[in-house]
Write a structure and sequence with these properties.
The protein is built from 5 helices and no strands. Helices cover about 70% and strands about 0% of the residues. About 0% of the residues are buried. Helix 2 packs antiparallel against helix 3. With about 80 residues, the chain is an all-alpha fold.
Length: about 80
């Protein structure tokens, strides 16, 4: 589950990245603007967008999902051993 959530977050981050703009700046040789934009990307509201995605999918937001995992481990996985 952790891997799946992180894969989805990586896809979301890639979708938020202005790849075309970065590519055009690089093609134009404007590395200063490209670097500045890359630095701005570090503060994108990925967390807020991810939380809204989780709300829309009716899954726990933030670290609340971990309680569900722990419950599953206790009630389901522990019986498999």
């Amino acid at each position: 589950m952790i891997g799946t959530r992180n894969a989805l977050k990586a896809l979301l981050l890639a979708l938020l990245e202005p790849t075309d703009k970065l590519r055009s700046l690089e093609d134009a040789g404007d590395f200063t603007s490209r670097l500045a934009l890359l630095e701005e990307l570090k503060t994108l509201p990925l967390g807020a967008v991810w939380d809204e995605y989780c709300r829309r999918q009716n899954v726990p937001v933030g670290a609340a999902w971990l309680a569900d995992v722990k419950s599953y481990e206790k009630n389901v996985l522990s019986r498999r051993a």
